[in-house]
Amino acid sequence: MPGENHTERQHLAGLDALRGVAIVLVMLRHYVTIHERQGALGAAFASACSFGWIGVDAFFVISGYLITRILLLAKNDRSFFMPFYVRRIFRIMPLYCVFLLTFTVLVPASAHRISTADQNSPLSELTRLPSDLWMYWLYLQNIPIAFRGFAYPILDVSWSLAIEEQFYLLWPLLVRFLAAGALSRVCAGVFLLSIGARVIVNVCELPWTAAYALSPCRLDGFACGGFVAAATLTGGNGRGIDGRRLSRWASATGFVLFGCCIIAFFSNMHGMGSGGVRGFLGSSLNTTVGFGALAVFFGGIVGGIVYQDSWLAWGAMRDTGVLASIGRFSYCIYLIHIPVGGATEILARWASSRKLMPAFLEASGVMEAITPAAAMVLSYLCARMSWILLERPCLRLREKLYPLGHRRHSNFHVANATQATPKRMN
Q1: CA max distance for the chain
Q2: pLDDT in tens, 24-61
Q3: Contact 121, 115 (CB under 8 A)
Q4: Could you point out which of 10, 110, 319, 334 has its C-alpha 20 to 30 Å from the C-alpha of 142?
Q5: pTM of the predicted model as reported, rounded to 2 decimal places
Q6: Residue 383: exposure state from Cβ atoms within 10 A (0-12, 13-18, ≥19)
Q7: What's the pLDDT tens digit per position in 114-146?
Q8: CB of 342 closer than 8 Å to CB of 34
Q9: How far is residue 277 from each of residues 29, 50, 282, 291, 295, measured CA to CA in Å?
Q10: Residue 242, Cβ neighbours under 10 Å: how many?
């Protein structure tokens, strides 16, 4: 039906727009906070951007929703596991393999040649590789990162990808063998277990990165996304749940709770002395309560998009072309934005040393805004090129081998007929 296709496009554009917001937040954190900003306004903006890590939490919720939805719609298919895993491999592995080969083989080799000739070259840092490099190929890098910290920025950005892959490995088993009505309760249980895992990390006085990067500690976001998918596809399990109202309450509750965490942190002088705004991320208050609040908040936002709710203008994201376009390429942008940002910074310094930039731009601090903006644009353009040359051809091959269309014939009950299987290559 024409109306059904229109709703599908709105639904996908809304999630893509939320992806766009998430990746912009992540880039702002990494691009804006690396240097001290001039003036009170610049410092305030940098402090706000330091919260950009919440974009990763949004990605977790979106992934939980989309993957659970795909699995539920295929629940009664004869071939359940093979199509799912093959489709995930075609979506994720090609770009990830190119990323690893580029930054563990090609770039270090080139940087080694340059740094040998020039001992002061900033590229010498690119020759450092982790001793546990093999774990990156197996999507296990979040485990060493949890205990040693983020020592290799370009490669360690993939920590969240490792968590997603581990989620993809186990979640299909639960969806396949659990009754549809029980899945919502399981999602709630996983949410609570994830909070409990972070409490244990804090009680045992492990590094804050353990609560941030270990999979058991970060499953609450996936659980919230899975809950939304289960609720929309099972009609609230026959309980007459008002999805729009529940989404509004969830987003409001999560927002207020996360805000309370921030206020409580900064009202404590000890919190101010432990890194200020940037110290909030690793605080025990955030790692125990804050992550869960964000999962609920973004779960409510995803629910609002799915239910076509216009509350707090989030429904307008369905038609936000710029954000949706950025979101469609967010996977590649996420992987490459740190090296692209580093290259842009080096280029800006080179231009400054050669007096190629007008003096007033540097004196007024305008370059501090131009450089991050240029890095964002370059990341987006590189991601579009990756889509055209690598990702789209791989996905087209995937559609020939395991087309998504066969899932439309599933007998699984869909609560809202307009919420059809997304046509976009997920």
Answers
A1: 70
A2: 999 999 998 766 665 667 777 888 888 999 999 999 99
A3: yes
A4: 110
A5: 0.89
A6: buried
A7: 766 555 556 667 778 999 999 999 999 999 999
A8: no
A9: 12, 7, 10, 16, 20
A10: 11
